[in-house]
From TrEMBL:
Oligomer status and interactors: Tetramer of two alpha and two beta chains.
Function text: The alpha subunit is responsible for the aldol cleavage of indoleglycerol phosphate to indole and glyceraldehyde 3-phosphate.
Organism for this UniProt entry: Acinetobacter gerneri DSM 14967 = CIP 107464 = MTCC 9824
NCBIfam families: trpA (TIGR00262)
UniProt keyword Translocase present: no
Keywords: Amino-acid biosynthesis, Aromatic amino acid biosynthesis, Lyase, Tryptophan biosynthesis
Gene: trpA
This protein's name: Tryptophan synthase alpha chain
E.C. number(s) listed in UniProt: 4.2.1.20
PROSITE patterns the record matches: TRP_SYNTHASE_ALPHA
Recorded catalytic activity of this chain's protein: (1S,2R)-1-C-(indol-3-yl)glycerol 3-phosphate + L-serine = D-glyceraldehyde 3-phosphate + L-tryptophan + H2O
GO MF annotation terms: tryptophan synthase activity
Length: 258
C-alpha cells in the first residue's frame, strides 16, 4: 500500500469525504510553494495535488493558467518539481501526493526516467491530455513503480467509455463537474447526486468531484456523497491575492466542512 491507499482506507474507516487540495509547483516561486505545500497535510488536506507547470495548460481555467505562467517565469520545471516533492517529503512523509500535468513535458523529460525518479515520493500521476486509447503503454510502467494512474471523466463521458476508463483507473477517479453545487436548482443537485452514484457503479475506486468548488456551502453539499472533494482554483486564487497564511486558513475551513 502506498500513501494514497492508506489514506483512502483511513477515510473509509472514518466514514467521511476527503479533501484534495491543488496547487501549481513553483507558484509564485519555489520557496513559497515549498512552504505552503509542506503545511497542507497538517492543515487539513487529505491528499495533495501538485500541478506540473506547462506553457499551454489548455484544460485549466484562467486562474490556474496564470499560476502556470507565474511558476514558469520563476524558473520552475519538471526537474525542480520533483525536487520540490522530495523536499516536501522531508517535512510531510504521510500525505499522499498526486502529480497532475500534461504529456509533452513528461515526454521531453523521458517518461521512464520521470517515473523512476518519482518512485517513492509520488503516489499517483494524472496526465490530463492522455486519452484512454494511448494509456496502455504507460500503465505497466506507472504501476510497476508503485504509483496509481488517476483518470478523468466528465458529465458528457458516455457509459461505454466509462467502462473502458474503469479498466485503467486506479487510486481514485477525478470527475470534472461542469456545475458548482451552491445555487443549483434542486433537480440539478439531484442530477449530480445521481451521477456520483452512477460513477460508483462503474468504478470500484473512490469518486472525487472537482471543478468550480469555491465555497464552504459547496463542500458541505458534496460531503458524504463524493468520496473526495477536489479544490483548486479557489485556493490558487487565494494564494495569489492573499498569501500563504490566508490560503492555509481557507484549507482549514474547507476541511472543517467535511
Amino acid at each position: 500500500m502506498n500513501r494514497l491507499d492508506q489514506k483512502i482506507a483511513s477515510l473509509k474507516q472514518q466514514q467521511r469525504s476527503g479533501l484534495v487540495c491543488y496547487f501549481t509547483a513553483g507558484d509564485p516561486n519555489y520557496a513559497t510553494s515549498l512552504a505552503l505545500i509542506s503545511q497542507l497535510g497538517e492543515n487539513g488536506a487529505d491528499i495533495i495535488e501538485i500541478g506540473m507547470p506547462f506553457s499551454d495548460p489548455v484544460a485549466d481555467g484562467e486562474v490556474i493558467q496564470a499560476a502556470h505562467i507565474r511558476a514558469l517565469q520563476s524558473g520552475q520545471n519538471l526537474k525542480k518539481t520533483l525536487k520540490l516533492v522530495k523536499e516536501v517529503r522531508e517535512k510531510d512523509n504521510d500525505t499522499p501526493i498526486v502529480l497532475m500535468g500534461y504529456l509533452n513535458p513528461l515526454l521531453q523529460y523521458g517518461m521512464q526516467q520521470f517515473i523512476q525518479d518519482a518512485k517513492g515520493w509520488v503516489d499517483a500521476l494524472l496526465i490530463v491530455d492522455l486519452p484512454y486509447e494511448y494509456q496502455a503503454e504507460y500503465l505497466d510502467l506507472i504501476k510497476a513503480n508503485e504509483m496509481h494512474f488517476i483518470c478523468l471523466t466528465a458529465p458528457s463521458t458516455p457509459d461505454q467509455r466509462l467502462a473502458k476508463i474503469a479498466e485503467n483507473a486506479s487510486g481514485f477517479l477525478y470527475h470534472v463537474s461542469e456545475n458548482g453545487v451552491t445555487g443549483m436548482q434542486l433537480h440539478q443537485q439531484n442530477q449530480l447526486d445521481h451521477k456520483i452514484q452512477s460513477l460508483k457503479s462503474f468504478f470500484n475506486i473512490p469518486v472525487g468531484i472537482g471543478f468550480g468548488i469555491k465555497s464552504v456551502e459547496q463542500v458541505r453539499a458534496l460531503s458524504g456523497k463524493a468520496d473526495l472533494v477536489i479544490i483548486g482554483s479557489a485556493l490558487v486564487d487565494t494564494l495569489a491575492k492573499e498569501g500563504v497564511e490566508a490560503t492555509l486558513q481557507k484549507v482549514r475551513t474547507f476541511a472543517d466542512a467535511l
